[in-house]
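Supplementary Methods S3. Input chains for the assembly prediction are listed below.
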Amino acid sequence: MSRIIASAAIRGAHRLVGQAEAALGEALERYGGSSPVAFPNTGYYLPVIYGLTGRRVEVLDDLLPVLDEARRLLPPVPSERVWLPYLGPTLDAGVATLFTDEIIEALKYLGPDCPYGSARDADRLWLGAADDAVLRQRGIEFVDGTAPGFAACVGAAPDAATAVRIARECQEKNLYVLLSAGTDGKSMAEQLASAGVQLGWETRLVPFGKDVTATIFALGFAARVALSFGGVSAGDARRLLDYCRNRVFAFVLALGEVDDEKYAQAAGALNFGFPVVADTDIPEILPSGICMYEHVVSNVPHDRIVSRAAEVRGLKLAVSKMDLPVAYGPAFEGESVRKKDMYVEAGGQRTPGFELVRTAETGEVEDGRIEVIGPDVDGVEDGARLALGIWIDVAGRKMQEDFEPVLERRIHYFINYAQGVWHMGQRDINWLRISREAFTAGFRLRHLGEILYSKLKSEFSSIVDRVQVRIVTDEQEVLSLREVARQYYTVRDARLAQLSDESVDTFYSCTLCQTFAPTHVCVVLPERVGLCGSVSWLDAKAAYEISPHGCNQPIPKRGVLDPEKGEWASCNEFIRDNSRGTIERTNFYTIMEYPLTSCGCFEAILSLVPEANGFLIVNREHSGMTPAGMTFSTMAGSIGGGVQTPGFMGIGKSYLASRKFIKGDGGLARIVWMPRDFKEQMRPVLTQRAEEEGLRADFVDKIADETVGIDVEAVLAFLEEKGHPALTLEPLF
Amino acid sequence: MTKRKDPICRASLEILERIEGKGPGNVFSRAGQIKPCPIGSGGNCCRLCAMGPCRVGEGKGQSPVGVCGATTETIVARNFARMVASGTAAHSDHAREVVQTLLATARGQAPGFTIRDAQRLKSLALELGLEPSEKDPLKLAELVGECLLAEFGRQDGELWFAGRAPERRQALWRELNITPRGIDREVVELLHRTHMGVDQDAAHLTRQSMRTALADGWGGSMIASQLQDVLFGSPTPLRSRVNLGVLSEDRVNIVIHGHEPLLPEVIVALAYDPAWNEKAKAAGAAGINVVGICCTANELLMRRGVPVAGSFLQQELAISTGAVEVMVVDVQCVMQGLAGVAACHHTNLVTTSEKANIPGALHCPFTPENAAAQAAEIVELAIENFKRRGEVYIPPYELNLVTGFTHDSVRYILGGTYRGGYRPLVDNVVNGRIKGICAMVGCTNPRIRAGEMHAQVVRELIANDVLVLSTGCAAINCAKEGLLVPEAAEMAGPGLREVCEAVGIPPVLHFGSCVDNSRLLEAACTLVQAGGLGDLSELPVVGCAPEWVSEKAIAIGQYFVASGIPVGLGVAFPTSGSTSFTEYLGRAMEDEVGAGWFYESTAAGMADRIIGIIDQRRRRLGIEKGRERVLFDMEMRRKLDV
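Predicted structure tokens for the full assembly:
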């Protein structure tokens, strides 16, 4: 009977509002009303408050009206008899809870005793609010299905083993696991940590915070998906919540006793359409309406709780079950194998290595053949190094040589998805580690072959008919095969270098991100990678072959309207039809007029610096201020969601290496500022491109960075001193 | 002599027992004495001209035509149409009073009244295409009032609120030429067309009766509900009590009966005023107790939680308790028998409408300008009268109820401030937890065991997972049976019960007075929209008035049917004198407007029929088995609206 839930949630909300009142009062007294308050590195203020009310909380005083709103939303507890309708009021109590959670959590960031570390701070278990960089970096996973949903685990499992089992199952099902609160002083994150499970965004097991109020970080994450990718305006609460219900497939797992405060969190989550599935015997709310299906389902055994929750949420999970001795799924991609945990490694410039996918004649390929040539891991000592060659022959009527690099790049992901197996690099600089745990569990080199075989066959089923894999550890054999592989790489690079926007007659769309950004359409050109950096023209082409009705569609290059700015009638038409009519025109080579829109998962942002007659580029890893007067996060907040914002554009990093890089605006010479680390990372490419564009070889050193300054005067003085070419280019306006 | 049929209400029975054989009689005793006229009840008596009256009929020995040659079918259709005209006139004349009161308030001429729901006023103004920048609510009220007052005298075009109906319904009305133009015009034209020797084609005449009824549902009634909300506040859920037990032994009892809540609102304000309660105490009472009867009761209940002493059939019984100091009445459903009963007690009967005088009552006509003074006079009178109380017997029966459901409050209840809307209702209709919705409306009738039909039909419906929305005296009867409390969900079928428990609502929702049936139309329109449907005739929704009494019930039924919602009547069917016309109202109207009339004399028959229609509509929607759970992959998600 859900009156029990309503009453508990409303009581909990009252208590939390009281707590927030006390905490805020104390903070005001100690720090003063004009003291800044914020979550780290986000352009969305306190995201739930910002998203639902449009209020930009910047200083403590800004929290007062939010608290008033929370109080206004608080309904009385339903009476024991002849009660009045409570569903609406309970949901309101839930929103009041979310507001107070966010107030309480934001206040924690004020003092020196902030309990939260950053993602790189290994000493601290709890991460607190996710910053925008994480959100954008992970964006592509949310849209292409590698991360179909989020499990917000509130409380603790009965024991660590059960916690691990639930977490592993979520990982295998590719779900992010967002951890908060505890039961009887224990928390699921602590249980996982005690069992040696690697926690963090990389492994999709995210310890937000031990207090129940830390649950807000999960909802803040969802709200930011709506704001950044969904093009939802802050304050448009209804759209934000509907968006989350229909696009963000999250659910709550309530583990252990559900007290009033947890019920209050549940009421908050229900507003987002996120149902609650509990392992204890609490009342249920089965009729649908606010959520897609049931609202609260209880008493679910631990071995069924994840699949039951997915079903309740309406979430279809595609799990490719492989017969492996270790767990397998994208969630394990980010997990690293540290040296001390490693059983064996290969490549990494220490031993020879390579990996190659090659098209062969059908007759040459025996489908499913997996060979291991040389010693297997059980034939070497703990801590040994092996040479490693991965040679894959594929054949298929629709296979093209152009697709070889597309398939080859997937090797990295497919191998990394295996728990306890770690892969880095590509081609002849690949590097592989197998953990002691994986080895003990029975992982052998043959499993690498099985993984590659079955993943290539399943993901590229329409272009690949036959696949055979050779895993070579015999050093001599590796060395000789590496020479052959290098010939393939050379030929391939030469062909790629010739690939240009002019040399093809078809571009490809990418609407993968419409999962979250319903009006955003990317057009991927040979010389312009998708802004997420993940989809090249060849990727898109292959994807179209694989799935002719999928997200990558060919756009015949027809009707040149402006070759300089890069406008084609056929592309305009395609974008208009697929952006639900919101975007009429697009130029591919300029950011000043009808630029390409952004979903939100861009790797970097180009932004106009009018005083310098040029642009700055800021990458998403850079959290500092820029001469545009905005951080990456703030800028990102205003350009995502499929809107055209002349003067701003999201891009993939490798676009900097393109000959078509903002060609219509004057090209590379317009770049006046970049964060230092980013500049160094890109230096080889930038230097080469500068030379090609007839800029001097020292061009890169003329680009200002944060050490020069983040105010325009300092940057301008530097540019003038260095004689930066942008200053003498034709004015941008 | 027909035998008296006792109501099922125990409070009423106790009073009836006490007054048996004493005094001037009452509605139950009179119903026992007077046989219903068999010709009149079938509608086949034409008394429109002095060549008649003509009894016509299809039976042996009956003349199939009147002196003028009018066929039985035409005569029955004319009588039916006249009921619609009268019912529409009643609701709409009520609405006119409300608009005039709003205008007087806006112009500062109505002390005692104010704008209580400025938000509603603003949204109405927007809807009516009025100056959205006008900030002053009084100015805005004047603009809205003038605009809506013009709806009565409008000669052509379409009524504003008809535009609230789904597009497809509006198109159908236009195609059939039944979109109402002006409220008064449709009534006048219908009366003209039923005059001797005018419209002689039953189907053609019925088109005009539909147009007239639509001018009630989407005109008069809707205007009344909307503007009463503006003046007195929009209802939100609250609890109260029902039945004669709400009369007080020791306080001054003022019973408000009738339909228009205008003056009653002012009286209630005084009755709740501590200063006036002090006056009552000075007169030896413990305070003032205001309670309601009939539809004014529903109005005051919905907005103020004023307890309900009883339905239409309990008006005389309330006075017979000896505990009523003053009964204030205005228009509609006020029995002339009241004066006689009042004369046997100390009760002062006060009539407050210029339009309605009752011999033996104190006449005190209401105008917006004098309402405050008048209310004071009435409360004074009641206090003064307290000391003249004689023997009192108040039957100790009263029950709790929950009320305050409207189109808007339901929206909130179902999702709160941020997620409000009809989605949960639609979802649970689609998935079959709720089989369908029944609007249980209308009066209560002493020709049958009063209250029994309501109680039995509702119990059967909710047990079959049909959600019931109720108005008028039907709602009061449901309340007296304990069906308007959330605990009544225990009597519901498993699906409906789950929904009621999830939302915290009773299985029967009290939607207000008889003009508030327009709220049901609004809610139905939102259901169409939320369900992604095209028309009201697709909804698994049925109306019924199992104990109907007044012509207003016929007008309501006709506008429901013309809007695409089938309506069933109990007691007797007013066109039974003509088989062909009765069939027309059923089948032909179903073809024309997607819904027809039906008659069922028993509760079981009525419930079966309603469930049958709901099932049929579910089948047409393809949701007879509920809908399967769909799991969404990425591709499907991209197609979901956001």
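Chain A has three domains: 2-313, 338-406+427-494, 506-728. Residues 2-313 of chain A form a domain with the Rossmann fold fold (CATH 3.40.50.2030).
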